[in-house]
Structure formats: structure tokens, C-alpha cells
Specification:
Elements: E1 5-7, E2 10-12, H1 16-19, E3 27-31, E4 34-39, H2 43-52, E5 54-58, E6 63-68, H3 72-79, E7 92-98, E8 104-114, E9 117-122, H4 127-133, E10 140-143, E11 149-154, H5 158-164, E12 178-183, E13 186-191, E14 200-205, H6 210-220, E15 226-228, H7 231-241, H8 284-293, E16 297-304, E17 314-319, E18 322-335, E19 340-348, E20 357-366, E21 369-380
Parallel strand pairs: 5-15
Antiparallel strand pairs: 1-2, 3-4, 5-11, 6-9, 6-10, 7-8, 8-9, 11-14, 12-13, 13-14, 16-19, 16-21, 17-18, 17-20, 18-19, 20-21
Helix pairs in contact: 2-7
């Protein structure tokens, strides 16, 4: 299979012939034109596979661009806010890119495959933006989404699965590193990356070998609790990790209609990605001005009292004996492993510093009756879930 399969008007990934055997729900959503499973059997079971064994998520619909040519590094260093000169071949960088007003267009991962050759993975499609930004650079930008099949293999037993797959040297792979292997005569790239905040890997291969890779992977993990997972489970894991999701924690700047609805890297807690030692990058002047005058918004992580999830809730602070609205919740859940009611939110500065006490207005329905609670919330610093195994090299075997 050289391209993604089309079935009943929907694009199916090269792994679909395998994933459909696990699908008992037939629940999916559109991911940039591709059918992506919400869950295969039950979202909770799939979530616990991520935290207790190994969950496998089909990443193939992710937008992918191959950046190559003599000016590929100069182009990317101009495009994103972080210093790409520090990202050596064989390493992966999380990055954001902004418009001229310093507002985030998107975030994504940049894989330095080899000297002068990169892969940019993102939520949105950016060929027009990248092409315009490349004017004056000797660089080739090639969208390769349909030419690369990908799986996220995440969880505490994922390292043992990789070992059983016969990937020699995988024990030496560090976080945000990548390695290349031969798989049935095709190059298999493995990166120690993921969207779950746990030990995990991502596997990248040509579509023609996708089914063979799936079979080998599930054979390697048959005694290690391996299970395919859908978006519901992945969403739970990423909130626990404190990771951002487009259209939830931020609206891509090119998609906003009203002013003040986009966010800068500073307003998303991504100031560590903004490197002013670089003389030029998109949005630099606006971001330097924001750093001087201060930001309007601040991303917060909240530990909320009680067990009522704070979906779509307003956030308040006490001022002069009364409650004032200062922001809203963007993502929320009850965390089974943390045993916490957690949320991500966007609040107006100067509120939202770590340790601050805020209040969340939660509405919930039980047996046709709506109730309202004002739940106390504490702003926390760092992710809710961050196990040491995520960084251990080599990871402990299962």
C-alpha cells in the first residue's frame, strides 16, 4: 500500500486492516480527513493500558513535512522560536511557530533525521505558511503524510516490547532521541517520544510494511498487556501530563476570527521555548515587547477539590470579599492514577501563580437535576503525572 486507503469516502490509515479487528464500537472522528478511532473497546480500559502495560495509538494521520536542502537549518531556525542549532542529528525537538504578532500558529515536533534533513510533525496543515516562510532559502518542503505510517507505543512495558521486537541498542535510546533499524528490508525509525507523559516510543515506517510491523509488535507484546488505544485514552493521558491540545488550550492564530482569542508562547507556559539569543525569528519583536510589558493570560494546572469534573467551567478569584471571573477551564478530568480532580485552564494575569488558591464554578447533572458547586482549586507547578521511568535510560524491563 503506497498511500492511505479510502473506504466509504473516508481515508483509512495503512494500519486499518489490523485495527478494525479490534474495533467493537465503530466510533471515530475526523482527523484532518482521516478516520481516527475514539476507542476500540472501552476508553477506560485503554487508558489503563497506557498506565499499566502498553497502549498502541495509530499516529499515521498526523501532518508530516520533510524539510531538506542546504538552508534547512536556517529556515527552521527562522521559523520557530527555539534555537534549532542545538538540535543535533538523531534528536527531536518540541517547538512552536508564531505569526508576526507573536501568536502561536501551532506546536509540533521536529525530527533531525540526518544532516540537512528534518521532519516536522504538527496538528494543522502548514504547507502554504511554510512555503511563504521559505522564500529566500534554498530548501525543499515536501508533505509526506501519506508516505509515512506511524504508531505511538506507550506505557511501562513498552521498552520490553521494543526489546522483544529485536531492536538492538534500543536500551540506549534517550528521551527525544531517535534511531534507525532495518525491518523486513525497510527503514524503521524509532523515536523516544509520545503524548502520554510516560515511558514510550513512536515508530515510523513506509505504509507497505505497516501491517507486518503491527503483527510483529503485537507478537512482541502478547504477554505484556499490549492493546490498541483510541483518542479518549490518549486525551486522558495528555491532560495528566499537562500537554497542550490545539483548539482546547489554544486556537491556532490563523484560525481565530476575533482579536484576543489566540495565545502567545508566554501565555501557554512555553517561555522556555523562546530564545532571544537568536537575532531573527517569526514574532520576535512582538514577543520581546510582551516580555517587557507582561502577558495578558496565563496557562494554569489546577488541583480541584471534590470529584466533579470541571468541563467548560469558569475560574474565579477572591478580590475585596467578592468573587471575580478571571478565566476558564480548557481541559478537565478525574485522574484515576493520580486520584485527583485535575484541569488545565487559562486565567488573566497576575492571577494563577503556583500555589495560588482559585475557585472553579462547576455544574453537573444527576438524575435530571442540575447542581452547582464552587470548588476550591490550587495552582500546581509541573505535570500531574511524571513517573521516573519516563526518563530512565535504560528503562527497567517489565
Amino acid at each position: 500500500m503506497s498511500a492511505f486507503e479510502v473506504e466509504q469516502g473516508k481515508l483509512r490509515t495503512p494500519f486499518w486492516p489490523k485495527t478494525r479487528a479490534f474495533d467493537r464500537l465503530s466510533e471515530s472522528h475526523d482527523w484532518k480527513g482521516y478516520a481516527s478511532a475514539d476507542a476500540y473497546l472501552e476508553g477506560g480500559l485503554e487508558y489503563f493500558a497506557i498506565r499499566n502495560s502498553t497502549g498502541v495509538f495509530d499516529l499515521s494521520p498526523m501532518t508530516k513535512y520533510r524539510i531538506s536542502g542546504p538552508d534547512s537549518l536556517a529556515f527552521l531556525d527562522r521559523l520557530v522560536t527555539r534555537d534549532m542549532k542545538k538540535i543535533r542529528p538523531g534528536r527531536v525537538a518540541y517547538a512552536v511557530w508564531c505569526d508576526d504578532q507573536g501568536q502561536v500558529i501551532d506546536d509540533g515536533t521536529i525530527f533531525h533525521l540526518r544532516d540537512g534533513e528534518y521532519r516536522v510533525c504538527s496538528q494543522e496543515r502548514h504547507l502554504a505558511w511554510f512555503t511563504a516562510a521559505a522564500i529566500g532559502f534554498d530548501v525543499t518542503i515536501d508533505e509526506e503524510t501519506t508516505r509515512v505510517a506511524a504508531l505511538a507505543v506507550q506505557g511501562p512495558t513498552s521498552f520490553s516490547v521494543m526489546q522483544n521486537l529485536g531492536l538492538d541498542g534500543i536500551e540506549n535510546l534517550k528521551m527525544f532521541g531517535l534511531m534507525h533499524f532495518d525491518f523486513h528490508g525497510e527503514e524503521l525509525m524509532v523515536s523516544r517520544t509520545g503524548f502520554t507523559g510516560d515511558l514510550g516510543y513512536e515508530l515510523w515506517i513506509a505504509p507497505g510494511k505497516a501491517e507486518a510491523l503491527w503483527d510483529a509488535l503485537f507478537e512482541a507484546g502478547k504477554f505484556l498487556g499490549i492493546r490498541p488505544i483510541g483518542t479518549y485514552a490518549l486525551e486522558m493521558a495528555r491532560i495528566e501530563a499537562g500537554y497542550l491540545a490545539p483548539y482546547l488550550e489554544f486556537i491556532p492564530a490563523e484560525e481565530t476570527v476575533r482579536t484576543g482569542r489566540s495565545r502567545s508562547p508566554f501565555e501557554l507556559g512555553l517561555d522556555w521555548l523562546v530564545d532571544f539569543s537568536k537575532p531573527v525569528f517569526n514574532g520576535r519583536r512582538a514577543l520581546a515587547d510582551e516580555q517587557r510589558r507582561g502577558s495578558t493570560w496565563r496557562l494554569v494546572k489546577l488541583d480541584i477539590e471534590g470529584n466533579k469534573e470541571a468541563h467548560h467551567s469558569y475560574v474565579y478569584a477572591r478580590k475585596g470579599g467578592r468573587m471575580i471571573n478571571i478565566g476558564f477551564i480548557t481541559s478537565a478530568m478525574w485522574s484515576p492514577v493520580c486520584k485527583q480532580n485535575i484541569a488545565l485552564g487559562s486565567v488573566k494575569t497576575p492571577h494563577g501563580k503556583p500555589g495560588d488558591t482559585l475557585w472553579v464554578e462547576i455544574y453537573y447533572q444527576r438524575e435530571m437535576h442540575w447542581s452547582r458547586v464552587m470548588a476550591k482549586a490550587t495552582v500546581v507547578d509541573g505535570p500531574f503525572w511524571d513517573p521516573p521511568r519516563r526518563r530512565a535510560t535504560p528503562p527497567a524491563p517489565a
